Amino acid sequence: MLPNPGHVTQTTPLTVVLPVYRNEASVAELVTRLEQACTPLNIKLELLFVDDASPDNAHEIIQKLKSHHPTIRIIQHDRNRGQQEAIRTGLKNSNSDYVAVMDADLQDPPEIIPSLYQELVDRQVNAVFAVRSNPYQSTGRMNTSKAFKWLVRQMVNLPKGAGCFVLMDRAMVRAVLGFQTKRFYLPGLICKAKLTISTLEFEREQRIHGTSSYTSAMRLKTALSNIKCLLE
After folding, report:
1. What pLDDT does residue 53 have?
2. What is the CATH number of the domain that holds 47?
């Protein structure tokens, strides 16, 4: 049973898992906005950065931020393993009652995390997807993304617009990590777990810090890996 929102205390922890790759320009603002956004929740916040062997100065910047922000914890991969494996590392190293996952490039606004939490508590569900309701990248990329997610929906009924911006309770985290798959695809495994989920619409921001590291070839490779994960 989830706690009543009126009785949330400092003993209710929330971890935000943040995969990092080429995000040196956004991490400082991200920390500030996450802490400000989550202050009204009156919880124990942890920001768990997973440095996926980022080739820029993101790791050094996060280490400096850590000395002034006790909410920060950082894990570093010895080599680049991809976003989904960074997410899996973060989930494996989280111990909180609630775990949110989001990108570190600020396209996903930290300010809606309280709304995701409220939705999860009010509806008594195990996960809430923040679903993107607006075009936030080029037409070609949007179309290929829609085609891929249409295919995933045929397999596991993924909500439209759902991605890796999601808040989960501990039961869902255990269920997702319980799949003994070689590959990892968080949105698909959440749906495959067949626990209760809900959605909350939001408008994703245009990227203002850096550029996406995903080429068309990498996007195709990732899509095929995600589909194979659901077939394992």
Report:
1. 97
2. 3.90.550.10
